[in-house]
Amino acid sequence: MKTILFQGDSITDAGRSYEDNNNLGGGYPALVKAALGFENPGEYEFINRGISGNRIVDVYARIKRDIINLKPDVMSILIGINDVWHEFGAQNGVDADKFFKIYSMLIEEIKEALPNIKIMIMEPFVLSASATEGNYAQFRTETEKRAEKAKAIAEKYNLTFIPLQEKFDELTNQAEPSYWLGDGVHPTPMGHEFIKREWIKVFNTL
After folding, report:
1. From the candidates 66, 73, 95, 183, which is the catalytic residue?
2. Known catalytic residue: 192?
3. Which domains occur in the chain, in start order?
4. Residues near 38 by Cβ (< 8 Å), separated by ≥ 6?
C-alpha cells in the first residue's frame, strides 16, 4: 500500500480530525481519497497534515513529525497564501525571497530523507471576495510572487507543478469569485472539487 500525504494550510486542513487519520476533513484531500480510493480499493493510505494558518516556515518547523516520519510515497504541498495574508494583519508574513529559501530547505531535507518520494507542488491562489477585496491588488501581486517561487521550486528540484490561479480566474467567467472561493481564499465545495480534479489530473502523470 502506498501512502499519499496532503500538506499545507487551512485549504488543505479543511476541518480534518487531528486524532483520526481517516477523517481528512471536507476539502480536496477527502475528495481525492474518495475518487482514488473508489477506483483503486486498498492501494493507497491517505494522510492529511494540513494545519490552518500555516506559512512555509510553519510547515518547515514540523518537517520531521508531519512529513519525514510518515514516510509518504507521494506528497502534495499547497502553501503560500498565509505568507501573504499574515503580513496584512499581524505583520508576520514571509516575504517572497525567504519563502523560496525555506521552501528549498524543506524540499532538500525531504528528498535527502526520502529519496524515492514523489512531490507535487501546488500553486497558491487568491480571488477578490470578502477577505481580500479591501486590498485585492496587493493581495494578488504578493500571492503571484509566492506562486512564481513555488513554480521555481518545482523547476529547481524537478518536481511536478499543479497550476491553479489561471484556471480559478477562468472559473469566475461562469460564476462570481465567492462561488469558488468563499472569502477569496478558502474554497467552497465547488472550489475544492476543482482542485481535486486538477490534483488527480497531475497525479495520473507521475
Report:
1. 183
2. no
3. 2-203 (3.40.50.1110)
4. none
